[in-house]
Amino acid sequence: MSRLLLTLSALALGSALALAQPARPALRAGAFAQDVTPEKFPVSVNGGFSDRKATAARDPLHARCLVLDDGKTKLALVVVDSCMVPRELLDAAKALAEKKTGIPAANVMISATHTHTAPSVAGVFQSDPDAAYAAFLTEKIAAGIEKAHANLVPAKAAWAVGHEPNHVFNRRWKLKDGVPNPDPFGGTSDRVRMNPPRQSPDLVEPAGPTDPGVTVLALRTADDKPLALFANYSLHYVGDVPPLSADYFGAFAEVVAQKLKAGGDFVGILSNGTSGDVNNINFKEAAPKLQPGERSRLVAEAVADAALKALEKAEYRADVSLRTAGTVIELPVRKPTADEVKRAEGILDRAKGRELKGAEEVYARETVKMATYPDTVSVPLHAYRIGDLAVAAIPCEVFTEIGLAVKKNSPFKPTCVVSLANGYFGYLPTPAHHAIGGYETWRARSSFLGVKSSDEIEAALAALLKQVK
Fold first, then answer.
1. pLDDT of res. 17
2. Count of beta carbons in the 10 Å neighbourhood of residue 408
3. Which of 23, 199, 224, 237 is deepest in the core (most CB within 10 A)?
4. Using CA atoms, how far apart are residues 106 and 280, in angstroms rounded to an integer?
């Protein structure tokens, strides 16, 4: 009898201890690639000083959606084939998705790939937002999140970092002393040039580094079938296909699915890292002769190979917890002086009645528009934790040095930084890059935050990453 009582007591104690222990997270994941190709043409296209009109889609555009749920927290990671998307549109899509799914808007990250061959939804240079497409895109993003949420199934996750250095080059080059280098505001003090002529004897060295890291988050079903793969790579875009096109981001989604021999429900996703000063051109060499789309495919193949190689030794786990943190910081706007506005108005008067030509005229229009901007703007920043992986979100075209600093100082290894996430606030150079000038620093709707804004953003992200730890 005493032995039976001891056994029952031990069982009761074991049950009590089990009840006292917090439940281990059990991950669920769902994904969906929502087609966001416009249904009506022509459409305005972002990405250049002049507006362009697309009359067809060379390949489909998508909002690639991944929803994760650990039993306590749900979050969504969405990457849209768009050049840049303003905060107002993304906030509307998040609010709509929250009504449909219950996922808090604060737990949804939506970023743009930065393809330069997608419909305009942000006003930059001479491209104005296409109102009909903006409304269409808002609805489609929310629908994609809803469908990914409906696809939630028990899942396993793994994360790793690959290495692909052969397709990233800093596009800002220091020039030899005495080389003429005017800016569009009448100045001549810039010491760097963006996208200089290939093999020019005037070039000294790149003005900054590159980041060859390929951070990857892979999801499998409970029975080990590929479900989704979210990657991050710091390359601006390739631009070898006429609009409309998803650029190498769309090619990556196709290539990684093929390499994994995944089913039709698999979703490959490539987000843009910190590539504000990085592109795919080696300025030391002559331009290679390639067919349209060939370079995008080569880059996609290489990045997919790096991602999958990194995952070879990664451990897939179902006990993955999720956390999110966000904040909004006020940052100053670089506004033109009265004299600068007067000069710009004179330039526009002389060009009245025709399309603006050249940087001086285009930036004159930007100067007049910047005069009406507020003195400060509210910039949203976010950090998301998925197991031991951290994702930091910045709503700018972020310089590579900033991304490398965020990664270095993060308590998470790995950490990836997603640019153009949750809004659009132009380029984000460092103060040192502001000092040497160049296109990315020229005041416009594409570059308007205060000179020290990157320092404030880095500090805020460091605090957010500690919160999700």
1. 42
2. 9
3. 237
4. 34
